[in-house]
């Protein structure tokens, strides 16, 4: 595993209001080194603005996607590069990427977006 990828997943603070955790349900292990990008839908043109690119850490987590000062109400998107993740493992897969779009209405809340991933399916939900 590329050490730069693993470091990138650990760089953020634990006080982040937005986190994610990816589990590889095919192996029963955390999905480490999976690339993801966070974007926000910006008005008035309704264009996605990329806020951060990161990688999941050894535990499959990306704890600090936004700092408390960066979060604001709006529509956000987490893009998970699942194709590259599975190719690195020599595994064929059906979904080249997963996009999870969600709305933040109160910047004072915490948001956790887990992803359960296999080569042939995925599930997500609002975690705590």
UniProtKB/TrEMBL annotation:
Q: Which GO terms describe its biological process?
A: purine nucleobase metabolic process
Name the species this protein comes from: Mus caroli (Ryukyu mouse)
InterPro entries associated with the record: Hydroxyisourate_hydrolase (IPR014306), Transthyretin/HIU_hydrolase (IPR000895), Transthyretin/HIU_hydrolase_d (IPR023416), Transthyretin/HIU_hydrolase_sf (IPR036817), Transthyretin_CS (IPR023419)
Which residues take part in binding substrate?
21, 61, 125
Q: What reaction does this catalyse?
A: 5-hydroxyisourate + H2O = 5-hydroxy-2-oxo-4-ureido-2,5-dihydro-1H-imidazole-5-carboxylate + H(+)
Gene3D superfamilies hit by this protein: Transthyretin/hydroxyisourate hydrolase domain (2.60.40.180)
What are the record's GO terms for cellular component? peroxisome
Keywords, sorted A to Z: Hydrolase, Peroxisome, Purine metabolism
Subunit-level organization: Homotetramer.
Molecular function GO terms recorded: hydroxyisourate hydrolase activity
- Where is this protein chiefly located? other
Q: Where in the cell is it found?
A: Peroxisome
* PROSITE patterns named in the record: TRANSTHYRETIN_2
Q: Which family does it belong to?
A: Belongs to the transthyretin family. 5-hydroxyisourate hydrolase subfamily.
According to its UniProt record, the EC number is 3.5.2.17
Q: What is this protein called?
A: 5-hydroxyisourate hydrolase
User: Which pathway?
Assistant: Purine metabolism; urate degradation; (S)-allantoin from urate: step 2/3
Q: Which CDD domains match?
A: TLP_HIUase
Outline the extent of the Transthyretin/hydroxyisourate hydrolase domain: 13-127
Q: What class of enzyme is it?
A: hydrolase
What does this chain do?
Catalyzes the hydrolysis of 5-hydroxyisourate (HIU) to 2-oxo-4-hydroxy-4-carboxy-5-ureidoimidazoline (OHCU).
């Amino acid at each position: 595993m590329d050490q730069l990828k693993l470091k990138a997943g650990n760089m953020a603070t634990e006080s982040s209001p937005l986190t994610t955790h990816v589990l590889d349900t095919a192996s029963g292990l955390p999905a480490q080194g999976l690339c993801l990008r966070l974007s926000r839908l910006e008005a008035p043109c309704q264009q996605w603005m990329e806020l951060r690119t990161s990688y999941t850490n050894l535990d499959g987590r990306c704890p600090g996607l936004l700092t408390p000062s960066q979060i604001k109400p709006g529509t956000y998107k987490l893009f998970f590069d699942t194709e590259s993740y599975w190719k690195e493992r020599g595994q064929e897969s059906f979904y080249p990427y997963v996009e999870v779009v969600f709305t933040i209405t109160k910047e004072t809340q915490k948001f956790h977006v887990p992803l359960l991933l296999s080569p042939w399916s995925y599930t997500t939900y609002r975690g705590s």
